[in-house]
Design brief:
The chain has four domains: about 130 residues, no CATH class; about 170 residues, no CATH class; about 120 residues, Rossmann fold (3-Layer(aba) Sandwich), CATH 3.40.50; about 140 residues, Rossmann fold. Helix content is about 25%, strand content about 20%.
Length: about 650
């Protein structure tokens, strides 16, 4: 093999390791600066996976999740290859050891990410290889989609015929795009990350789009095309060269393949330019990126040359950023771009928040009115690289006081926790709405700031009347909601009343009698069936929400499903829901209402649910918001002309 052999041989550890270092007193292995140039030898269909991992992360077992996922997905061979771009010439490390479910490319730690990939190349035997750094987390099914994408693609945006490299869209932990591929802003300058800092919805339009290269260490590539990596401590430059060189080797394309929520779990590596990086970038001197315009055009955007920071010399510590601007040839008409801001955490942590479901339903309704909508979670309320595209910033006010957008029309919709909202916060917004009419009237009178009532809503396409579901047999009285290790009033009262109760939600395990707690979570798509199947649904509110008329979203969903709901008193609920929602005052009252049950016929109950869904749909709320925003923007333009 064409590399300098240090200790041992590739794939076979030279020593074993004890808790304090190599066993038997043998020395650690020096960092490996060699570059393996031997070619892979694919002999079979299927795919291999090379898991690259920073040395410190390897010792912590960070690679094991990627290894397990690769095995489950059917990888023929899984190779782990470690590296440390911060290693000095005298650095030594314990040997890299194989595991029961993976081999190692070699026992030594490479000095660069490119060196780690190079060490694995000669050991590849399948027709496709996925290179995945341990700092990139892929969702289920992503490996299969990336592998399948490496092949003929065609389409109007492809000057060439073949996809040779498939790149996922990688997100940062705050759920904005880290990169959807690499843009060559100017030859010899560092590559820029396409859609960096954009909301993830923007990247969905890039499915199958050509890009110049990749710049995140995660991609699928035809094994025969996998080029020899360049050696540089700047990993993003190494990835860009490797992916572009591999595509060029067979006159093919690098293609974007959104495969769901792909996260970079490690800290973004800083740009670390050395003379090797300068040499690696110099090969593109005079070359242009013929893919970026077509990729951005899918979003109705063009590169904004005035804000593309092309950095100049590659040894500069700055990096270019390509910002998009709306195509001049694109007539957007009355199509506005909305940023819907919510307090829920990004990623899986926020998946079961009510704010998340609310925002998704509202986004669908606004899109149905011809609007562009993105949803920004808690850490992405400020997006410096893409917020200039937003026309409307709509904050669904829950727990967070969110900064206003500097140029957009700022709309505040208070849907919960009204006691947290101050007059100063209201004054920062162009339009203010509240899901509590009582609160809206009191605040308007007390501050002189206009707050319009706008109740919460439901999606009648999902929450509508129907037959009971066999998944919830003989369901009498149901409650769905979490607790923080204290009795919520309606559940406490139902237990005391002795009703036939079933509870779903987190935190109830030690609080309820045996058999009452049925589960910690009901998927949102199963809630309509539960509501339709229950004879009675229970509901309650936070004290401030009940006092100020903030009607729970659960009331809209359950009543639109045809359910009879018993709840704590909130002003206006009986008339609002045409008798489907009945307030109780004490334990005896709750017991009587549950025992009485529904007095309407099945037909009347279904008609009532359909009426509630029509009157209180997200589509109706979206129409109200859009009309108000158009009036506000029209008035602003008129004032600007005076």
């Amino acid at each position: 093999m064409a590399f300098r052999r240090l200790l041992g041989r590739p794939g076979v550890p030279a020593t074993t390791t004890g808790p304090d270092g190599p066993a038997g007193g043998e020395p650690s292995l020096p960092v490996d600066t060699s570059l393996v140039t031997d070619a892979p030898q694919p002999q079979t269909d299927g795919f291999d996976v090379v898991v690259t991992v920073a040395e410190s992360a390897f010792r912590a077992g960070a690679h094991l999740g990627a290894v397990r996922a690769a095995r489950i997905a059917g990888a023929r061979t899984v190779l782990v290859s470690a590296y440390d771009v911060h290693a000095g010439p005298q650095s030594t490390y314990p040997p890299v050891l194989a595991g029961d479910d993976h081999d190692v490319a070699r026992a030594t730690v490479a000095a660069t990410w490119g060196g780690a990939v190079a060490a694995a190349r000669p050991l590849l035997r399948s027709s496709v290889v996925v290179v995945q750094d341990a700092g990139i987390a892929l969702p289920d099914g992503a490996l299969a989609r990336l592998v399948a994408a490496v092949g003929p693609v065609g389409g109007p945006d492809h000057d060439r015929r073949e996809a040779v490299v498939a790149l996922p869209v990688v997100r940062t932990p705050d759920d904005v795009v880290a990169s959807a591929g690499a843009v060559l802003v100017r030859g010899t300058a560092p590559v820029a990350a396409l859609l960096r800092g954009h909301p993830s919805e923007d990247a969905e339009a890039l499915d199958g789009a050509r890009v110049f290269a990749g710049d995140e260490p995660c991609f699928a590539v035809r094994t025969t095309a996998l080029a020899v990596p360049v050696v540089t401590v700047d990993t993003r430059t190494a990835v860009a060269r490797l992916t572009r060189d591999s595509a060029d080797a067979v006159s093919g394309d690098c293609v974007v393949v959104p495969v769901g929520r792909v996260y970079r779990t490690s800290v973004l590596r800083e740009r670390r330019y050395d003379t090797d990086a300068a040499d690696a970038l110099a090969v593109w001197r005079g070359r242009s990126d013929d893919a970026v315009d077509a990729a951005l055009a899918r979003l109705g955007l063009a590169p904004d040359e005035t804000s593309a920071d092309a950095a100049g010399a590659p040894v500069a510590l700055r990096e270019p950023v390509v910002r998009g601007t709306w195509l001049r040839t694109l007539d957007r008409g009355e199509r506005l771009r909305w940023s819907v801001r919510i307090a829920a955490h990004p990623g899986p942590r926020g998946d079961d928040w009510g704010d998340t479901f609310f925002a998704r339903d509202l986004a669908v309704a606004l899109r149905g009115l011809g609007q562009d909508v993105v949803v920004d979670h808690r850490e992405a309320h400020v997006r410096p690289f893409s917020e200039h595209l937003d026309d409307v910033a709509l904050t669904l006010r829950g727990l967070d006081d969110t900064p206003v957008h500097p140029t957009a029309t700022n709309v505040l919709w208070v849907i919960s926790h009204p006691d947290l909202v101050t007059a100063a916060e209201l004054a920062r917004h162009d339009l203010c709405f509240a899901a509590g009419p009582v609160w809206a009237a009191r605040v308007t009178a007390g501050t002189g700031l206009a707050v319009e009532p706008l109740l919460q809503a439901t999606d009648p396409a999902r929450f509508h009347p129907g037959s009971a579901d066999p998944a919830f047999p003989d369901l009498d009285t149901a409650f769905v909601g979490k607790t923080r290790r204290v009795f919520r009033p309606v559940v406490r009262d139902a237990v005391e009343a002795g009703v036939d109760l079933a509870v779903w939600g987190e935190g109830w395990e030690s609080l309820l009698p045996d058999g009452v707690h049925r589960g910690v979570f009901v998927p949102n798509e199963q809630l309509p069936a539960l509501y339709r199947s229950a004879r009675v649904v229970l509901n309650d509110h936070w004290d401030d929400m009940a006092r100020d008329g903030f009607v729970s979203n659960r009331l809209f969903d359950a009543a639109a499903s045809g359910a009879l709901v018993v709840t704590d008193p909130v002003p206006g609920t009986e008339a609002l829901f045409h008798g489907a929602v009945r307030p109780y005052t004490d334990v005896a009252d709750l017991r009587e209402l549950v025992q009485l049950g529904e007095s309407a016929s099945d037909a009347d109950r279904a008609a009532r649910g359909a009426r509630i869904g029509a009157e209180h749909s997200f589509a109706r709320r979206a129409e109200t918001l859009l009309d108000a925003v158009r009036r506000e923007r029209g008035g602003r333009q008129e004032r600007g002309r005076r």
